[in-house]
Design goal:
The protein has a single domain, classed as Zn-dependent exopeptidases (Aminopeptidase, 3-Layer(aba) Sandwich), CATH 3.40.630. With about 240 residues, the protein is an alpha/beta fold. The chain has helices spanning about 5-30, 40-60, 90-105, 125-135, 165-180, 190-195, 210-220, 220-240, and strands at about 65-70, 110-115, 140-145, 155-160, 185-190, 200-210. The longest helix has 30 residues, at about 5-30. It has a six-stranded mixed beta sheet, with helices on both faces. About 50% of the residues lie in helices and about 15% in strands. The chain starts with a helix and ends with a helix. It contains eight helices and six strands, in the order ααβαβαββαβαβαα. GO terms for molecular function: N-acetylmuramoyl-L-alanine amidase activity. This is N-acetylmuramoyl-L-alanine amidase. Keywords: Hydrolase. It comes from Cohnella lupini. One of its GO terms (cellular component) is outer membrane-bounded periplasmic space.
């Protein structure tokens, strides 16, 4: 075959290939319909729907109201530990508990209940039952410590179940920050009000009433306000961290 014949065949092949490419482009344009550049296809849009739904779920969860039970220790015929000055633990813990309750009432993210709001005695099992029956998200039992050696002082928080450790650590951290009391740690202990609680629950020993300086702080308006604010700040931090 002559070189001229080869060139004619190559030219025809090139024309055919160009014609096929033009047809292919037209087909793709028709398939795309009226789609605007930059707009997602149906397939792309379907992959974005779960993301939008997930964002809405996060917003809804952030609006949750958490139920908090505040348990002022002792009461009634159970005076608790005697303070250095002779004032009983039950009175100081009720005063602090009422302040915590009032502060929680001002927080939209919380709904609060007290196990007692006056000088009455409530059985330990009943304190846990109040929280369980209500479906509470946390229980805070407030106490004051005492020892035969009046030089001992400091604040500590007790927890029993593993699901309460983070709550205990968070509230204890806020107590140290707000009050300046000495750190006696977060401790694991079997206590009835903690054992029978179905939600995260902690028992606070706000300080040593047997120590004259610490008792004076716990009985003062400023001291009680600081302790109450520390508890509320700890609860806010705990639940915000879990959202």
């Amino acid at each position: 075959m002559s070189n001229r014949g080869k060139r004619n065949r190559s030219s025809k092949s090139a024309v055919l290939l160009f014609f096929l490419l033009v047809l292919g482009g037209a087909f793709l344009f028709i398939q795309s319909g009226n789609r605007i550049d930059g707009a997602p296809s149906k397939e792309e849009a379907s992959t974005e729907t779960p993301v939008k739904q997930e964002a809405e779920d996060v917003k809804l969860s952030s609006d949750k109201v958490f139920k908090i039970v505040i348990d002022p220790g002792h009461g009634g015929n159970d005076p608790g530990a005697p303070g250095y000055s002779g004032i009983e633990e039950k009175a100081d813990m009720l005063a602090i508990g009422l302040k915590v309750y009032d502060l929680l009432q001002q927080e939209p993210m919380f709904e609060a209940r007290l196990t007692r709001n006056d000088d009455t005695f409530v059985e330990l099992g009943d304190r846990a039952a109040i929280a369980n029956d209500w479906g509470a998200d946390a229980l805070i039992s407030i106490h004051g410590n005492s020892y035969t050696d009046e030089s001992i002082f400091g604040t500590e928080v007790y927890y029993e179940k593993e699901n309460s450790l983070q709550l205990a650590e968070t509230i204890h951290s806020k107590m140290l920050e707000k009050t300046g009391l000495v750190d006696r740690g977060v401790r694991n202990e079997q206590l009835k009000v903690l054992s029978e609680s179905e939600m995260p629950a902690v028992l606070m020993e706000t300080g040593y009433l047997s120590n004259p300086d610490e008792e004076a702080f716990i009985q003062s308006e400023d001291g009680q306000a600081r302790i109450a604010q520390a508890i509320v700040d700890g609860l806010k931090q705990y639940f915000q961290d879990r959202q």
